[in-house]
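TASK: fixed-backbone design
INPUT:
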């Protein structure tokens, strides 16, 4: 249980009543009467505070939310580090005034969130982002923090300008690298889809369900479905039409 202490209002009300009664009896526009009223009000307030009691209320404490866990220690660590990295990107975006840098940070934030989500859904992809988590992401944050510190100085100088220009010059490459990291996580899926497409095309051709004249010719002639050469395609089209 959590205790909440409600202070008594009795001292305040008591002091106010003393002021009011004194004002009715004596002219407060005279300095000595004003000082006497203030002293009496303060004394009455202290007495009221001494005799009054504060009210203590006990309320149940709200349980602290447990951190999200997946049962995979490495995945949990990656998700935690990812959340911290995105929070840092948001802070840097708020701090840095340059619109181009700020827009690039937003792109990095969104791409990073997609990377973490893909790995969360498929932990087998963890090895694919180890270098990203151990080097590319922290180094990017280090560069952006350096830019932020230099930008906050508000002065021009060789070191400050060269640092900022260096970070500005590499941001497009960093954004592209993050995009490629996300794209690489879909490699297996792209291969599976490509295989499914090839199998589907061949099955439709064998069943005569394809509108492709090459597949139709092969199906009618009972020729095994295979990928023809360019010369074979031209010959098939001539015979078909």
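OUTPUT:
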């Amino acid at each position: 249980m959590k205790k909440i202490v409600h202070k008594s209002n009795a001292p305040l009300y008591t002091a106010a009543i003393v002021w009011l009664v004194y004002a009715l009896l004596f002219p407060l526009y005279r300095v000595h009467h004003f000082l006497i009223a203030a002293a009496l009000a303060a004394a009455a307030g202290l007495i009221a505070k001494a005799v009054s009691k504060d009210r203590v209320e006990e309320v149940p404490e709200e349980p602290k939310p447990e951190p999200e866990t997946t049962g995979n220690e490495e995945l949990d660590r990656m998700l935690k580090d990812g959340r911290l990295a995105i929070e840092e990107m948001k802070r840097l975006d708020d701090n840095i005034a340059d619109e181009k840098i700020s827009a690039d940070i937003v792109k990095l934030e969104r791409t990073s969130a997609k990377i973490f989500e893909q790995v969360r859904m498929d932990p087998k992809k963890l090895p694919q982002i180890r270098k990203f988590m151990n080097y590319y992401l922290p180094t990017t944050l280090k560069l952006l923090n350096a830019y932020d510190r230099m930008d906050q100085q508000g002065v021009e100088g060789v070191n400050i300008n060269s640092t900022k220009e260096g970070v500005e010059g590499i941001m497009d490459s960093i954004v592209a690298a993050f995009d490629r990291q996300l794209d690489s996580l879909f490699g297996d899926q792209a291969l599976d889809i490509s295989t499914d497409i090839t199998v589907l095309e061949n099955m439709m051709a064998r069943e005569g369900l394809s509108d492709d004249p090459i597949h139709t010719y092969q199906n009618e002639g009972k020729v095994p479905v295979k990928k023809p050469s360019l010369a074979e395609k031209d010959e098939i089209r001539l015979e078909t039409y």
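COMMENT: The first strand starts at residue 2 and ends at 6.
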